[in-house]
């Protein structure tokens, strides 16, 4: 009986090497590949995982991780994102799971309930996977663990997975898998972005992309002409983020970095070089001496009007004229793990109606920076940017400006956005879009409203800094739609058990 089970298990694992296969994490082929059959599989993995790896991230590390994970797990549950689109992979997997469950397979039901996702790559790669998982719209979507394989690694750092590129040997991968098994689930807010631009009388107001758009930006696909989000006479795009949306000088530096890496990929083989190159570009782009290298037309207040939703009404948000970069922050990790919001002083916070920043409270923090020197205050124990507001909804309205473009960035992925040259407009609006599940280690820096030590209602901390740094005293349809993987969404009323 045991020999029959071992033979069946080895066949289901694909490579026949059950000794090196970690059964607590492995998924048999009949779950992964529709049409595969293997009767007698009785070992239920405690922590079944599906692994997505960006082989282009981290120099050669992505490829090395592929080899290590494939040798430890069923090779059919480890995917190279350069070859396999995650929406298609998860579409096939969940369709097969639903079909098996419909046929009374309790093993498949348990696999689905226990399933966890591992994604190895930069912040953009992690954002891409979260968008796909969000679009699954499942009652219990699988939580996601992130392997820090990029340059900044803000998402992994926020949940305790570190920010340094990992080791790729077998023992290190086994250690990471153990941490995934022990990790706790944590809900975080997700944010929907809709961008509308009035169709210009002449020229184009579409996003300029001299580079191929990164996968994380595929969320900004133009909506269809029959979509309810469309308005006559406007081009409409939509997307979303989990960590931050930023615009201004910081996004410009990021855009220059991505452009340089695209042109010379051979130079960007390790994290230390990437970070040094990023710092150098910050200098050459004028981020450290913006008052000398950039005109006042680059100031946020000169580029856009900013409004936030207060008690159901749009109110103007005053942006100091010196601010050249603005960040809408969901997680306490930006620019390589720094926290721009910091910990507000108690008296100032009460006066300005500020709360502790939780990742699941339906609010994001709006922070401004004058230049990179201002950003360096984050390295101090109580350092922070210019706290502008906390909001559940914000709108940027761009009209004719002195500058011809600005730069925007979502979770580390930048693009260059043209600004109106006539009476056209560009509107970017951010609103709450529900929540997704992340996996967090004991080193997690993000705070949840559900934590045992969190107060029953948000309040400010008592022992924070008293910095005198510069501070200041639409429809449900839009919030429902996300659009990160439009082709993957199931239509209302579709019975997944009937999907082949």
TrEMBL record:
<keyword id="KW-0418">Kinase</keyword>
<dbReference type="InterPro" id="IPR000756">
    <property type="entry name" value="Diacylglycerol_kin_accessory"/>
</dbReference>
<dbReference type="Pfam" id="PF00609">
    <property type="entry name" value="DAGK_acc"/>
</dbReference>
<dbReference type="InterPro" id="IPR017438">
    <property type="entry name" value="ATP-NAD_kinase_N"/>
</dbReference>
<keyword id="KW-0808">Transferase</keyword>
<comment type="subunit">
    <text>Monomer.</text>
</comment>
<feature type="region of interest" description="Disordered">
    <location>
        <begin position="446"/>
        <end position="500"/>
    </location>
</feature>
<protein>
    <recommendedName>
        <fullName>Diacylglycerol kinase</fullName>
        <ecNumber>2.7.1.107</ecNumber>
    </recommendedName>
</protein>
<keyword id="KW-0346">Stress response</keyword>
<dbReference type="Pfam" id="PF00781">
    <property type="entry name" value="DAGK_cat"/>
</dbReference>
<keyword id="KW-0547">Nucleotide-binding</keyword>
<feature type="compositionally biased region" description="Acidic residues">
    <location>
        <begin position="462"/>
        <end position="475"/>
    </location>
</feature>
<dbReference type="GO" id="GO:0004143">
    <property type="term" value="F:ATP-dependent diacylglycerol kinase activity"/>
</dbReference>
<comment type="similarity">
    <text>Belongs to the eukaryotic diacylglycerol kinase family.</text>
</comment>
<dbReference type="GO" id="GO:0007200">
    <property type="term" value="P:phospholipase C-activating G protein-coupled receptor signaling pathway"/>
</dbReference>
<dbReference type="InterPro" id="IPR037607">
    <property type="entry name" value="DGK"/>
</dbReference>
<dbReference type="InterPro" id="IPR001206">
    <property type="entry name" value="Diacylglycerol_kinase_cat_dom"/>
</dbReference>
<comment type="function">
    <text>Phosphorylates the second messenger diacylglycerol (DAG) to generate phosphatidic acid (PA), another important signaling molecule. PA is required for plant development and responses to abiotic stress and pathogen attack. May be involved in the accumulation of PA during cold stress.</text>
</comment>
<dbReference type="GO" id="GO:0005524">
    <property type="term" value="F:ATP binding"/>
</dbReference>
<keyword id="KW-0611">Plant defense</keyword>
<dbReference type="GO" id="GO:0006952">
    <property type="term" value="P:defense response"/>
</dbReference>
<keyword id="KW-0067">ATP-binding</keyword>
<dbReference type="InterPro" id="IPR016064">
    <property type="entry name" value="NAD/diacylglycerol_kinase_sf"/>
</dbReference>
<dbReference type="GO" id="GO:0016020">
    <property type="term" value="C:membrane"/>
</dbReference>
<feature type="domain" description="DAGKc">
    <location>
        <begin position="44"/>
        <end position="197"/>
    </location>
</feature>
